[in-house]
Amino acid sequence: MRFIHKLLLAVVIILLSFAWTSPVFADNNGDRIFTNNCSSCHLGGGNILIANKTLHKEALSQYLDNYNTESIQAIIHQIKNGKGAMPAFKNKLNEEEILEVAAYVFQKAEQGW
């Protein structure tokens, strides 16, 4: 039963992610990349699969190696290689796209999503 609820929530979030656009970040390529590749699981900096492993600064600091000393590099490593339920994006996104989405995630985390 919990699986069905999670699956239903994931479908709703995916559908909403296609409809949602932010006029504030309309020209931000990192936002576009995030929306197209990450928001189905991380909409609004959350995490639909593992609730405590969000993209909020506190969680990134806790769960990403070296986040406190090399934040962008830690995020890039996670995007490229994935971990656990998160897939690797090194074969899906190019280096520039990875850097742009990492910078976007860092900026949003610093601002509190």
From TrEMBL:
GO cellular component: plasma membrane-derived thylakoid lumen
Localization annotation: Cellular thylakoid lumen
Gene3D superfamilies, A to Z: Cytochrome c-like domain (1.10.760.10)
One GO molecular-function entry: electron transfer activity
Chief location of this protein within or outside the cell: other
GTP-binding listed as a keyword: no
One Pfam family in the UniProt entry: Cytochrome_CBB3
Keywords linked to the UniProt accession: Electron transport, Heme, Iron, Metal-binding, Signal, Thylakoid, Transport
Secretion signal, residue range per the UniProt entry: 1-26
Domain of life: Bacteria
Positions of the Cytochrome c domain: 25-109
Coiled coil region boundaries: none
Protein family according to the UniProt entry: Belongs to the cytochrome c family. PetJ subfamily.
Protein's name in the database: Cytochrome c6
